[in-house]
Amino acid sequence: MKQPQKLNPNGPAGALESITVVDPATVTDGKAVETGASYMGDDGDSLLVGIWDCTPYAEVFMAEAEGYPADEFCQVLQGSVTLTAADGTAQTFSAGDSYVLNKGWCGEFRVNEPFRKYYVMAA
Q1: Measured between alpha carbons, how far is 109 from 91 in angstroms, rounded to an integer?
Q2: Residues 52-64: pLDDT tens digits?
Q3: d(CA 34, CA 52)
Q4: Whole-angstrom Cα distance, residue 107 to residue 94?
């Protein structure tokens, strides 16, 4: 049986690894340079817990592509992100904020400054 695991903001091993989550085809501004680590689950699991870090960029999730791929809870550790829904409603989340994003959400996901978050994602 696994023991409880403290979430280290630098990843389980103390350092984040280079990853690619963002689809370059959806990027509309900047370039997403990403690092991250998983605390629970992997690509085949329905529940994922991890940390994600990224440089400023923007991408768009469209209804034609089924929108955002999963239900997600996020706790912002550093930086800020602005989520602008398809109807133009914008919300900015900064360090210390938490938010949820529903599967199928459509709009712009814009990382405003170097950004780091914990996430819990359910596919």
Answers
A1: 10
A2: 999 999 999 998 8
A3: 7
A4: 18
Q: In the Cβ-directed half-sphere of 63, how many Cα atoms lie within 13 Å?
A: 3
Q: Which domains does the chain have, with CATH numbers?
A: 24-122 (2.60.120.10)
Neighbours of 101 (CB within 10 A): 20
Residue 26: φ, ψ to 5°: -95, -5
Whose CA is closest to 98, among 118, 112, 83?
118
| φ, ψ (nearest 5 deg) of residue 55 | -80, 165
**Type of residue at 74:** C
Instruction: Retrieve residue 26's tokens.
Output: 């959806």
What is the reported pTM?
A: 0.92
Integer Cα distance of 82 and 91 in angstroms: 6
